[in-house]
Specification:
The chain is of the alpha/beta class and 362 residues long. The chain has ten helices and 25 strands. The protein is 28% helix and 27% strand. The chain binds flavin-adenine dinucleotide (FAD). Flavin-adenine dinucleotide binds next to helix 1, strand 2, helix 2, helix 6 and helix 9.
């Protein structure tokens, strides 16, 4: 090969920025270009705070990346021509690559049940969060996962004029330990959140949500947090993907079908301890972005990377600004009995979020 090795990183979220930052120090001989449809890095893990009316910070990507000699192209990638090794952009231009890092993250799945796309607010992107303003009446939040729980607590704490309901077919935080679930319920109820854990939503309408038992819960606004999808670019471009559209990777995060493509973060299928897939999380995106960069740098030097070894230690949830939950985890990501709660947990969670922002920003 002649000339500089060209590495294009698609996506400037936690995974893409962690990869680019690491490449800038570990693969100095390469030319690194980051592509993102947005001009700014927004802390996605704070979108529930934005939806509840709080200001969250933004960082200018071009400026941030220029400090590390990384090129930035603001554009939406519309196609990957894997034969020509070229990314086509919506700006009617194209970028040639020798190595591609695919880190396009995730989006809400508006097709989960009828009516979501037409009648529900979403919370997966800064644009989604920006569209939502808490009304005076009832806000129904669908989904008792981490996003639904964090939003319910944040809204109930900062928007006392809203009546907040959290609905799902299971107890909020069903995957967590008994003590964790009890703490979440206690805090949500203290904040005035009404919890329905027997509610399977089958349709969202202009009036509210319809449940599987035929009843209608009226809402001034419905927020859909149940179910995430991924951009379809990898699937449309012929990369091997799972049924959701995430890139299938080997133990060095290399695409199974295209060895010059690496994938990290929410838009990749990554094997974790005990045969479980790593989950969509900032806690996954940062280390896998870094690891992909290390693997690329090692191969550029003619070496062979050691397989990714990663485990989670804790899962952190905010419960408003004054309470939180830190769930300690076994190696295989299942919950231990130990949890940390209250103000200390809120403080730890805030420190983790800040740390993640610093880790991503070059
Ligand atoms: C409200 C909320 C709270 C959360 N809280 C936590 C938490 O506490 N802990 C945790 O671990 N995780 C949390 N998460 C999950 C976490 O935010 C994601 O897992 C993480 O952001 C994934 O990082 P990523 O780099 O893979 O993708 P993203 O951060 O989503 O970045 C993807 C980037 O790709 C860009 N992009 C997409 N398509 C294109 C395209 N075609 N062309 C160009 N650019 C494109 C986007 O603009 C974006 O900048 C939360 C998520 C939400 C929504």
């Amino acid at each position: 090969m002649t000339g500089q090795h060209r590495i294009v990183v698609l996506g400037a979220g936690y995974a893409g920025l962690a990869a680019a930052r690491r490449l800038a120090s570990k693969a100095r001989e390469a030319e690194i270009t980051v592509v993102d449809a947005r001009a700014s890095f927004v802390e996605r893990v704070r979108l529930h705070q934005q939806a509840a009316g709080q200001q969250i910070s933004k960082w200018d990507l071009r400026e941030m990346l220029a400090n590390k000699n990384i090129h930035f192209v603001r554009a939406r990638a519309t196609q990957i021509d894997t034969e020509a090794k070229r990314v086509l952009l919506d700006s009617a231009t194209a970028l040639d690559y020798d190595t591609l890092v695919y880190a396009l993250g995730s989006i809400a799945d508006p097709n989960s049940v009828p009516g979501v796309a037409e009648h529900a607010y979403l919370l997966a992107t800064p644009e989604d969060a920006g569209r939502f303003t808490a009304p005076r009446g009832t806000v129904v939040i669908v989904g008792g996962g981490a996003t639904g729980i964090e939003l319910a607590a944040e809204l109930a704490e900062t928007q006392p004029d809203s009546r907040v309901m959290l609905l799902g077919p299971d107890e909020p935080g069903a995957w967590l330990s008994t003590r964790a679930r009890a703490h979440i319920r206690r805090v949500l109820e203290r904040l005035g959140v009404e919890i329905r854990s027997d509610a399977k939503v089958i349709e969202v309408t202009g009036e509210g949500v319809r449940l599987a038992d035929g009843s209608l819960i009226e809402a001034a606004a419905t927020v859909w947090t149940a179910g995430f999808g991924v951009p379809d670019l990898a699937a449309r471009s012929g990369l091997s993907v799972d049924r959701v559209g995430r890139v299938l990777t080997d133990a060095s995060l290399r695409s199974l079908s295209h060895p010059d493509v690496y994938a990290a973060g929410d838009s990749a299928v990554i094997a974790g301890p005990g045969g479980r897939e790593l989950r969509m999380a900032c806690a996954t995106a940062l280390p896998t972005g870094k690891y992909a960069a290390d693997a690329i740098a090692t191969r550029l030097r003619g070496g062979e990377p050691v397989p990714l070894r990663f485990r989670y230690a804790v899962q952190c949830l905010s419960l408003g600004r004054r309470d939180g939950l830190i769930q300690f985890l076994h190696t295989d990501d299942s919950p231990r009995r130990t949890v940390l709660t209250g103000r200390t947990a809120a403080w730890v969670k805030e420190a983790v979020v800040r740390g993640a922002g610093w880790a991503a920003r070059p």
